[in-house]
Structures are given as structure tokens and as C-alpha cells.
Structure to design on (754 residues):
């Protein structure tokens, strides 16, 4: 009797386990059917739109709504960008849902790499354009009416070098890295603009300092703000014959190049013109002093226009942006081609739906919503994108003074294949007292280690 | 006559599930970490780590950030250990006397121990704010404005500020252990010493200290482990800045892992840490055991 009871218990337990496994299998199978049904449905929808209305079947198969997973930086979704609004438009138009996953800014890239390695990828993601962030190897080709409308530098940035296919959808107005300056302070100091070389920059700082105003306001708590000086001021060094090639192929270290060390020393030489508390000032605190005329300028991107418009709407007209340089004979306006872009991993479960979603976002009317609140030159021909007054003034200044438009010092030197590692802390270390050569050597060791792991040619 | 040895496997059955879980979630990952420390495992090729011998260790000793992080960790450990031990011991002495509200004082001193280090770091970053922080405001209020400074900006001041935060946060643990140790000393020794005319100081040196040596051992080991594995306090307060000046060992490992994607390199740093701390802990235990007495 006891034996029979034990046997019955064992059989019941086994049956329970088997039925659980069966239910799990059924559940995953129905999920797969839902995913696979979206692709043929999408194809059917496209086909239906191409056939004349009279031939359109009256009973088209109903498309099951799909939930797309989207991943991006924490900062990009919490800054009030247009992505949230355009996602709502997409959901209303298609019935699909977008599940947003945001990650800490300094960890997103590595988390995404881990997801790629394990196959647990989002359906699409947004990141800075360029192969330096995420390799382009495992991304889907993107096609759509917008592809042929991209301006050439943007198209080059989002094209996979291995096969020439476009793999990212750039959705940021083209902006500038520049000096955000207070026009009244410069006028009161009697400084003539633009500043065409480093000596003129130093003279301007001296003249402003005599007024009792900080010439340059540096938000040095963030380690990348000091690096902006080299981004925009170091283009002359980057263009010197052989410099870019030697550094990008690891034939030389930055400290081996005298002009590179001199550039770092010139940033250090500007230290007496910084605000005294520059090492402890966070990024958000930079808006006030320049807007209020307590500081003459700060080095930032033109996206500061929107921040200042929000906080100091009556002062935004007192400010503008201009190119600056650390060089002796060259100044350029520096444009950014490495801003926001969408991509679809090849291993994404709903890649076709994700590509359709991107095409929806890139339609002219939706694009205007997507890029909010940023302003700049249009990355797509024929798209109506608003330039801010600052950007217009800088464009006019460059035209009047024959100042060319270039990429940043790092883009010119390292391109998209070499990871230039923790560049931000180099200049922070120099400003904190480390010698330029030692700081550049430490930076080299870090980026050499990263590129060795990345198997970058030459490292 | 031989009695048959009865084999009772039930104790093994009861231990087995916990052992399996421990093995899978602790032992195996640690062994894997030790092995991966000798590879170039990274986020660019996460599924194909290659053995690279001692390269990771060589790169570590070559890195200036590594040496800064070791120096800062040693400094942090020494300073916090010494201060916590001395202050904790005297607080324990004070709070084992018959004073009013001693339980309340014990609770207040111990309370910060249960707060998450990151939360404490956020609170202290406000306190240390050079413009709006209450520390500088208080110093100016009491006429010590010349002592105000940017606490988290200058390297030396920043490390001391982090040490002060840690001492405030963790002194409760040392105090509580010392209180337990002081309570365990039999009163007869103090009575006998009193009769023999020993002063309070001599009672402290010849009775309290030797008989609470095991507490000193425990507290030293705990302070050492806590000091060397500091992370949340530094990450929350300065994130290793300015310019890596307050980088400690664990923030160094975290940076290499999460920002640079160098998993093998981080594993090597972790392995080195484990070996060094184990050796130091065993040495300290051996030394302190020799100093313990029983009357």
C-alpha cells in the first residue's frame, strides 16, 4: 500500500513537471509566431501600398502589434528630447509599442557590447554615430527615402567602411563645438572678433581680466570640458603632416610630437584666466556666469543655446558662439558629426519592425519632432531644420572671415577605428599639476591598452 | 566481534543543496575570475578570450593610475583603521560607564552603519559643497573662515574628507565590538587592582587592553577588510577624481571593467587584491594571536 502511494506520488510529480515544460514550450512558440507574423505582415503592408487601390485585397491580414525594445543613454531620454514625443506618435500611428531601456552614460557602450555578445540585443538603439562607439559589423543595413538625402560628411560617418552600407540613421542637427561668449563683455574689453590665433586669445583674456571678469569659465569637475580646448583648438596640430598617421597607427605617442605637447602646455597656460574654483564646478553651473556677464566665455557646444534660453531667456541675445584656436596660423569652426543616431542590430528579434520605425522617425515631419529641442544645420537635404541665432551668427562670422569648417582634432587624428580612451582626464590631470608629458604618456598607456584589446591595426 | 560501521549519508544530503549553490555562485566564479585574469578578455571580443600570461599584471604595475589607487587605498585603510580603533575604543570605554542615556548614545553612534555608503556619500557631497555646504558655512559662522576650502577638489583634502566620512559611518561597528569585549572582562580583576592601589590608567593598560586583545584583533581585521575594499564612499563622493587623485583599488577595477571594457585586466587586479589581502590578514592574525592573554 505504502509502495503504491509512493509510486503514485512519483508519477504525479513527473506529470506535473512534464505539463509545465509543455506549457513553457507552447508559450515560447506562440511568442515566436507573433514575431514572425509581424514580418510577413509588414511585407504584406508594403506590398499593399504599392499595388493600385482597385487591386488591394479587401481583407488584408491583420498585423499583430509588436513591442520594440529601445536602448540608449540615461541622459538622452531624461533631457526632454523629442524621442519620447516621436515614439508616442509612432505608437499612435502603428499600434506598436516601444519599451525604453536607459543605461548609465559611462556604462552604456560596454553593456551594449555584452548584449551583442550574448545575443540579448535591443531591437534598436540610439548612440553617438561612428565606429568608435559600437563596431558597425553586426548592424543591419538601413534603407529608406532619407538615406540618399544625407549630407556627405554625415553619410560618411554612418556608412560601414567594409561594404559601404549605411547602418545608422543620423538624427541630430549639425552643430558646432565653440566658445560660448558674452558679446557685451568682449565689447567692453575692446576685443576685436574673431580671435584668429592663440596670441589673440591670450591678449583678449588679459584685456577681460583687467575688467575684473573671469575670461574663461571652466566646468572642470567634468573631465571632458577641459578636453574641449583640444577638440576645437587643436585642429592645426592634427593637420600637421604625418601627425594623424603616426598617432593613428601607433608609430608615435602623443608626447613624442612636440607640437602636441605644446598644445597641452598652451591649455595649461590659460589656467590663470580660468575661474578660481574651476576644479569643483559641475557642468550645469556654467550657464549662469557667462549669461550674467561674470565670465566672458566658456568652451562648449552650441546646444548651450537651449539651456540658456530656458534659464536666461532675456540674456540669450547677449551671447553667441565663435571659433577659437590654440594654433598660430589656423582657426576653424568645428562641427560635430558624431551625435545622435539610431541603429538596428542584426540579431534583433524585430529588426524589420525596428527598421520601419526608424523610417517613420526619419520622415520630414516626424524628424522635426525627433530632433527637439536641438537646432542646427540640417543633416538631410531638403529637411526643414531650424538654426539658432547663435549658429547663424557663427556661420556668418566664418563666411566673412574665410574660416573653414572642420571636424574635431580627435576625429581628424583617430578617425573611427582607433579608440582614444579616457582623453578627458589628460587635461584635467595637467590642470591639477601633472606635467604635460607625463599626463600624455599616461593617456597613451590607457588608449594603447584598449586598442590592443580591440586588435586595432598597429597596436 | 566486529561491529559493522553504519554509514549515514543523511548529513551529506542536507548539506548538498547549499554546497551546490555555494559552488555554482561563489567558488566557480572565483576560480573562473582567477583564470580569466591571465587572459585578454574584453568587451570587443567577449566570447573569445585569449591567454596572455602575465601581460595584465605587467600593464597594471606600469600604470600610474594603479599605483595611485594602491597608495590611496593603503592611506585610506591606515587612517580609518587607526582612528576608528582609537576613537571606537574610547567611545566604548565611555559608554560602558554608568551614564544617563548611554543606550541612546550607542544607538546614535551605531545608526550610520546601516545606511548605504552611496547614500551617505550623496549626503556628504552636499555637506562638503564649497559654496552651499554646511561645513564651510559652519566654519565661517564660528569665525574659522580661513579653514574653508574646496574639500573634494584638492587631492590631499579630498582623501581626508572621504576618510572622515568613513569614520563617521563605521565607527559604530568598532565601538560595539569593544563594548562587548569590555563587558566580558570579569569585575574581580578591577576590584583586585583597586585594592592593590592601581590607578585607572594602569587598570586600562594591564587589565582592559590585554583582556580585550581579541576585540582588537577582530576590529583590526574588519577595519582592514573594509578599508581595502572601499568603493561606494569614493564612487559616490568623487568617482576617483579629480583627475584620478582619489582613485582607490576597487574604483580602479570598476573603471577598467565598466568604462574600458577590459574584463581580463580587471580580473587580474581582483586576483592580485585577493592574494595580497589574504597574506596580510593571516600575518595580522598570527601577530595578534601572540598578543592575546588569559589570566
Amino acid at each position: 500500500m505504502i509502495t503504491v502511494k509512493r509510486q503514485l506520488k512519483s508519477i504525479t510529480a513527473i506529470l506535473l513537471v512534464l505539463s509545465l515544460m509543455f506549457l513553457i514550450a507552447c508559450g515560447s512558440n506562440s511568442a515566436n509566431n507573433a514575431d514572425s507574423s509581424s514580418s510577413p505582415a509588414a511585407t504584406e503592408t508594403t506590398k499593399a501600398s504599392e499595388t493600385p487601390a482597385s487591386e488591394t485585397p479587401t481583407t488584408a491580414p491583420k498585423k499583430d502589434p509588436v513591442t520594440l525594445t529601445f536602448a540608449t543613454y540615461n541622459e538622452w531620454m531624461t533631457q526632454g528630447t523629442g524621442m519620447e514625443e516621436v515614439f508616442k506618435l509612432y505608437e499612435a500611428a502603428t499600434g506598436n509599442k516601444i519599451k525604453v531601456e536607459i543605461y548609465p552614460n559611462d556604462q552604456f557602450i560596454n553593456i551594449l557590447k555584452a548584449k551583442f555578445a550574448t545575443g540579448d540585443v535591443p531591437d534598436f538603439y540610439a548612440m553617438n554615430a561612428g565606429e568608435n562607439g559600437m563596431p558597425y559589423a553586426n548592424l543591419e543595413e538601413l534603407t529608406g527615402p532619407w538615406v540618399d538625402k544625407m549630407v556627405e560628411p554625415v553619410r560618411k560617418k554612418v556608412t560601414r567602411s567594409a561594404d559601404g552600407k549605411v547602418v545608422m540613421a543620423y538624427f541630430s542637427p549639425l552643430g558646432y563645438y565653440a566658445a560660448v561668449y558674452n558679446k557685451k563683455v568682449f565689447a567692453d574689453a575692446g576685443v576685436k572678433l574673431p580671435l584668429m590665433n592663440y596670441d589673440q586669445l591670450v591678449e583678449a583674456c588679459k584685456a577681460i581680466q583687467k575688467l575684473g571678469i573671469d575670461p574663461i569659465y571652466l566646468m572642470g569637475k567634468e573631465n571632458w570640458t577641459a578636453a574641449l580646448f583640444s577638440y576645437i583648438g587643436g585642429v592645426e596640430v592634427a593637420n600637421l603632416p604625418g601627425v594623424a598617421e603616426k598617432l593613428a597607427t601607433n608609430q608615435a605617442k602623443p608626447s613624442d610630437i612636440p607640437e602636441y605637447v605644446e598644445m597641452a602646455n598652451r591649455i595649461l597656460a590659460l589656467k590663470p584666466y580660468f575661474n578660481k574654483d574651476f576644479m569643483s564646478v559641475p557642468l550645469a553651473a556654467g550657464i549662469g556666469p557667462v549669461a550674467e556677464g561674470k565670465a566672458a566665455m566658456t568652451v562648449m557646444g552650441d546646444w548651450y543655446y537651449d539651456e540658456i534660453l530656458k534659464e536666461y531667456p532675456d540674456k540669450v541675445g547677449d551671447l553667441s558662439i565663435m571659433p577659437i584656436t590654440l594654433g598660430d596660423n589656423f582657426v576653424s569652426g568645428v562641427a560635430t558629426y558624431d551625435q545622435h543616431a539610431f541603429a538596428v542590430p542584426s540579431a534583433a528579434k524585430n529588426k524589420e519592425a525596428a527598421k520601419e520605425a526608424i523610417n517613420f522617425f526619419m520622415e520630414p515631419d516626424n524628424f522635426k519632432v525627433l530632433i527637439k529641442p536641438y537646432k542646427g544645420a540640417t543633416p538631410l537635404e531638403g529637411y526643414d531644420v531650424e538654426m539658432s541665432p547663435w549658429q547663424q551668427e557663427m556661420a556668418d562670422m566664418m563666411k566673412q572671415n574665410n574660416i573653414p569648417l572642420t571636424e574635431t582634432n580627435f576625429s581628424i587624428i583617430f578617425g573611427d577605428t582607433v579608440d582614444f580612451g579616457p582623453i578627458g582626464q589628460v587635461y584635467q590631470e595637467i590642470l591639477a599639476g601633472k606635467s604635460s608629458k607625463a599626463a600624455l604618456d599616461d593617456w597613451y598607456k590607457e588608449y594603447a591598452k584598449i586598442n590592443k584589446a580591440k586588435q586595432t591595426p598597429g597596436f | 566481534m566486529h561491529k559493522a560501521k553504519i554509514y549515514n549519508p543523511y548529513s551529506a544530503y542536507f548539506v548538498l543543496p547549499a554546497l551546490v549553490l555555494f559552488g555554482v555562485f561563489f567558488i566557480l566564479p572565483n576560480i573562473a575570475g582567477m583564470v580569466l585574469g591571465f587572459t585578454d578578455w574584453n568587451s570587443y571580443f567577449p566570447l573569445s578570450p585569449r591567454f596572455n600570461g602575465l601581460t595584465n599584471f605587467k600593464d597594471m604595475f606600469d600604470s600610474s593610475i594603479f599605483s595611485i589607487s594602491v597608495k590611496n587605498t593603503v592611506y585610506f585603510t591606515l587612517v580609518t583603521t587607526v582612528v576608528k580603533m582609537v576613537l571606537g575604543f574610547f567611545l566604548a570605554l565611555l559608554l560602558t560607564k554608568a551614564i544617563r542615556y548611554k543606550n541612546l548614545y550607542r544607538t546614535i553612534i551605531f545608526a550610520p552603519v546601516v545606511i548605504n555608503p552611496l547614500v551617505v556619500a550623496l549626503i556628504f557631497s552636499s555637506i562638503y559643497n564649497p559654496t552651499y555646504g554646511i561645513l564651510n558655512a559652519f566654519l565661517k559662522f564660528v569665525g574659522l573662515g580661513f579653514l574653508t576650502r574646496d574639500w573634494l577638489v584638492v587631492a590631499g583634502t579630498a582623501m581626508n574628507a572621504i576618510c572622515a566620512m568613513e569614520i563617521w559611518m563605521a565607527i559604530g561597528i568598532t565601538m560595539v565590538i569593544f563594548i562587548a569585549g569590555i563587558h566580558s572582562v570579569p569585575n574581580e580583576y578591577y576590584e583586585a587592582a583597586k585594592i592593590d592601589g592601581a590607578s585607572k590608567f594602569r587598570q586600562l593598560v594591564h587589565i582592559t587592553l590585554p583582556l580585550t586583545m581579541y576585540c582588537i584583533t577582530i576590529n583590526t581585521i574588519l577595519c582592514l577588510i573594509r578599508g581595502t575594499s572601499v568603493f561606494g564612499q569614493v564612487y559616490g563622493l568623487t568617482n576617483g577624481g579629480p583627475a584620478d587623485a582619489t582613485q582607490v583599488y576597487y574604483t580602479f577595477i570598476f573603471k577598467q571593467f565598466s568604462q574600458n571594457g577590459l574584463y581580463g585586466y580587471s580580473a587580474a587586479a581582483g586576483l592580485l587584491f585577493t592574494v595580497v589581502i589574504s597574506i596580510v590578514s593571516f600575518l595580522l592574525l598570527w601577530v595578534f594571536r601572540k598578543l592575546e592573554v588569559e589570566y
About this structure: Residues 26-60 of chain A have pLDDT under 50 and may be disordered. The CA atoms of residues 58 and 357 of chain A lie 25 Å apart.
